[in-house]
Design brief:
The complex is a heterodimer of chains A (about 180) and B (about 625). With about 180 residues, chain A is of the alpha+beta class. Chain A is about 25% helix and about 15% strand. In chain A, the strands form 2 sheets. Chain A has a 5-stranded mixed β-sheet, with helices on both faces. A two-stranded antiparallel ribbon of chain A has the order 6-7. In chain A, a hairpin with a 4-residue loop joins strand 3 and strand 4. Chain A is globular. Chain B has 26 helices and 18 strands. Chain B is globular and about 85 Å long. Chain B starts with a helix and ends with a strand. The model of chain B has no long low-confidence stretch (mean pLDDT about 95). The chains are: A alpha+beta (about 180), B alpha/beta (about 625). The interface between A and B is large, with 42 and 35 residues. Bound molecules: flavin mononucleotide (FMN) and iron/sulfur cluster (SF4). Iron/sulfur cluster binds next to helix 20 and helix 22 of chain B.
Chain lengths: ~180, ~625
């Protein structure tokens, strides 16, 4: 077991747990979008940022990836966390103003509008849940990331109808922004 | 043939005369070595043609026994290539073409009259300067990492050995314990040259102390910064120095295998490196049971995918393992969990190439060079609005002024110096007021820039700082791996605002918001790319806020932002020569011969061609 401090509370967790797992287990709320407890954490959405104030790599880190170590001091709601999280929410809202899930998070964290204009928008927020569910649960790896920067997207190899895809719909089900539609072919 | 340690000395002895001659001993002996640059820059200026012409002429005059043409790596003075130094005298020739060679060979070697017209001039009125050592560009440099520059043929391992090559490795292998090697590097205070300046000795120590029998070392030769080519040149001119550094690191860390991760766009460097690896392997300097000590180490080359983010260490590791090159969170750091999950020590090319010198000449010697906390030298690629473009090695702590004026020869065309950008896309712009700033890790960081890997872009009064910030954000927005919302969309958001400002549609509130956004991007992003990408914006906002405000008032003071400028033809100066009308790519200029010409503002694309071609300075911008 490992002892660490989160929001001034001392907690004990099993070795190998992440900050997010430890926080959830003890009822501390941290927002997430690209996290699912059945899948490996990815750290893309940046909503679960927490501040490491001591005992580790000082600064803001994604709680879903950071493993708890002995004596770690974590704070989940500092001014610094709030400021960064606010901009992350504004960015998500700017890219995806109609997503119910994002609107809900925005509301919960008091962000009622975005000051950002991204010019373009897509439903996909590149959280990678679909890629991970396909690889880790379905075991098919029919889809993956391609490209980088704003041109990054999730696709089947060469964007063609995939033979590997078994049409199970797990990706569409897990997608937090309903960006994946199922079609008959 | 596998060498013994004694063989290293034998090779040195055999080449002793050659090396002494190249170092300047033997003037008047009638033997000459023509050190012709074959770095990427000079090759693209046709130095191989110059080589053929030299061989031809030397043969014609029957001088093959006396004059030897030696191909070297990058000489650094890339602005005036192809370049050649005649040794032992040290006479330097520049801008050579194939056609110049018959005359040059006859004059210099038959008539014994060095040719002034191929010599360097400090300015257009100045006289040709015969000797390399008297040219300001060279005279003010300190060569440690580049100590073999222009002195050896990088494709000949014997020449490297003759310049103390592999001696440090032999010493480390036979006379030092790994702890001693690490301590020596720690004592030297060497810091990583790849960007962040992390203490190299500490990194080695933590890798050594990481549990695990299998460990790797990696040389990071991805070099993705636009305009930077330090690492490419080091490999091109002295590949064995990098290998020797890695060998020493391998002993210290306890690694048996190493990789050089090099970008695909560097074919010449890659070729030289693989030649060097083959030669070293043949001599038994790499491979199994080196020098019969039981120590084994092998090095292989991995080709990069040419993305900027592949230079980030965790992404580089993913790329080596054949995975999608995306950074991951640290901790665990590569020294804990690197390639194939094993402890891995990653250092930059320049860092590795510095190591043999520290082992050879001692940590104390190294420690004396440089400033208080930044020791040794640093290589910079000096580019932009600077007279002497090129690659330079200088001691840490040298001032910007010395670099820009003494070595760089100042700003061309009598323009005013405005700023210098250091550290590439993660760096910042330092304004002319800070020209006396000493260049080291601490002082650059205090000024809001970074050392980075050594890119230095000089800017003159015609540079628009908002445009500069936009240029770098365009780069990083494109090069972000796209994983973090804050980096991918944050960069796009910044770019959007900068574009709006350069179109003259910005508002005061945009400036404040850009700062807020920048700090959040830095804080929220996972890897160094996102964590530093706002730096060009923050530093220009800090030093050049007035220029941003002018843009908000719809003016671009440097007259760069196309939406905010107009080209006009001045009635008082136009002679009606028609040249501008002929050259305008969109036919926006009308006017009869010998009559005042006019620019149709609706058609004009503001390319500036008319201004450039007008001989009467009749085109003005406002
Ligand atoms: C986006 C990004 C790009 C990088 N590119 C390079 C590179 O091209 N070459 C390099 O040596 N280090 C690069 N680095 C730094 C490496 O991650 C790593 O810190 C470095 O290679 C360590 O070597 P050093 O300690 O010798 O500096 C980059 C870092 C980031 C965040
Ligand atoms: S900060 Fe940018 S480049 Fe780095 S992992 Fe995140 S998205 Fe990728």
């Amino acid at each position: 077991m490992i002892k660490f401090i989160i929001n001034d509370r001392e907690l004990e967790v099993e070795n190998g747990k992440t900050i997010l797992e430890a926080a959830f287990a003890s009822g501390i709320k941290i927002p997430t979008l690209c996290y699912n407890k059945e899948l490996s954490p990815y750290g893309a959405c940046r909503l679960c940022l927490v501040e490491i104030a001591g005992g580790g790599r000082i600064g803001l880190h994604a709680a879903c990836l950071y493993k708890v170590t002995e004596g770690l001091i974590v704070k989940t709601d500092t001014e610094r966390v709030k400021k960064a999280r606010k901009i992350v929410i504004e960015l998500l809202l700017a890219g995806n103003p109609d997503s119910e899930k994002i609107k809900l998070i925005a509301e919960e964290y008091g962000v009622n509008k975005t000051r950002i204009n991204l010019g373009t928008r897509t439903d996909c927020i590149l959280c990678g849940l679909c890629v991970r569910v396909c690889a880790e649960v379905v075991g098919m790896s029919a889809i993956s990331f391609a490209g980088r920067g704003t041109r990054k997207k999730v696709q089947t190899p060469f964007d063609k109808i995939s033979d590997t895809c078994i049409g199970c719909g797990a990706c569409a089900y897990i997608c937090p922004t309903k960006a994946i539609k199922i079609e008959q072919v | 043939m596998k060498l013994t340690i004694e063989d290293l000395d034998k090779i040195s002895d055999k080449l002793k005369k050659t090396m002494l001659l190249r170092e300047g001993d033997g003037i008047g002996s009638g033997i000459f070595h023509l050190m012709l640059c074959a770095g990427t820059g000079c090759i693209s200026n046709k130095s191989s043609r110059v080589k053929e012409a030299l061989d031809r002429e030397i043969k014609k005059h029957g001088l093959e026994e006396k004059i030897h043409v030696v191909i070297t790596g990058c000489n650094g003075f890339c602005a005036v290539g192809p370049v050649m130094t005649v040794l032992p005298d040290g006479i330097f020739y520049e801008n050579l073409t194939e056609a110049d060679i018959p005359f040059l060979v006859e004059e210099h070697f038959i008539n014994k009259r060095p040719v002034k017209k191929f010599m360097h001039r400090q300015n257009s009125l100045g006289d040709g300067i015969p000797y390399l050592k008297d040219i300001n560009f060279f005279a003010n440099q300190t060569l440690i990492v580049l100590r073999n520059r222009g002195l050896i043929d990088p494709e000949k391992i014997d020449e490297y050995i003759a310049r103390d090559g592999y001696k440090a490795f032999a010493k480390a292998l036979t006379k030092m314990k790994s702890e001693e090697i690490i301590n020596e590097i720690k004592k030297s205070s060497l810091r990583g040259r790849g960007g962040a300046g992390f203490p190299t000795g500490l990194k080695w120590e933590s890798c050594r102390n990481s549990p695990g029998d299998v460990k790797y070392i990696i040389c990071n030769a991805d070099e993705g910064d636009p305009g930077a080519y330090m690492d490419r040149s080091i490999i091109e001119l002295d590949p064995h120095a990098v290998l020797e550094g890695m060998l020493i690191g391998a002993i210290a860390i306890g690694a048996k295998e190493g990789y050089v991760y090099i970008r695909t766009e560097y074919p010449l460097a890659r070729e030289r490196l693989s030649t060097a690896i083959e030669q070293a392997r043949e001599y038994g300097l790499i491979g199994e049971n080196i020098f019969n000590t039981g120590f084994s180490f092998d090095i292989s080359i991995k080709q990069g995918a040419g993305a900027f983010v592949c230079g980030e260490e965790t992404s580089l590791i993913a790329s080596i393992e054949g995975r999608y090159p995306e950074p991951r969170m640290r901790p665990p750091f590569p020294v804990q969990k690197g390639v194939w999950g094993m402890p891995t020590c990653i250092n930059n090319v320049e860092t590795w190439a510095t190591v043999p010198k520290i082992i050879n000449y001692g940590a104390e010697w190294f420690y004396k060079i440089g400033s208080e906390k930044s020791k040794g030298t640093k290589i910079f690629s000096l580019v932009g609005k600077i007279t002497n473009t090129g690659l330079i090695e200088v001691p840490m702590g040298i001032t910007l002024k010395e670099i820009i004026y003494d070595i760089g020869g100042g700003i061309p065309d009598n323009k005013k110096f405005k700023a210098v950008q250091t550290g590439g896309p993660s760096g910042g712009c330092i304004p002319s007021e800070l020209i006396n700033l000493p260049v080291d890790y601490e002082r650059l960081a205090e000024a809001g820039a970074i050392m980075g890997s050594g890119g230095m872009i000089v800017m003159d009064e015609d540079t628009c700082m908002v445009d500069v910030a936009k240029y770098f954000i365009e780069f990083t927005a494109d090069e972000s791996c796209g994983k973090c919302t804050s980096c991918r969309d944050g960069a796009s958001a910044l770019l959007g605002i900068l574009e709006k400002i350069t179109r003259g549609e910005g508002e005061e509130s945009d400036l404040e918001f850009m700062e807020e956004l920048s700090h959040a991007i830095k804080d929220a992003s996972m890897c160094g790319l996102g964590q530093t990408l706002p730096n060009p914006v923050l530093s220009t906002l800090h030093y050049f806020k007035d220029e941003y405000k002018e843009h908000i008032n719809k003016k671009c003071p440097a007259k760069v932002c196309k939406a905010l400028i107009k080209y006009h033809i001045l009635e008082s100066k136009c002679t009606g020569c028609t040249l501008c009308a002929i050259k305008c790519p969109v036919k926006a200029i009308s006017g009869d011969k010998k009559q005042l010409h006019k620019i149709d503002q609706n058609t004009c694309i503001k390319c500036g061609m008319c201004k450039e071609v007008c001989k009467f300075k009749a085109v003005s911008v406002d």
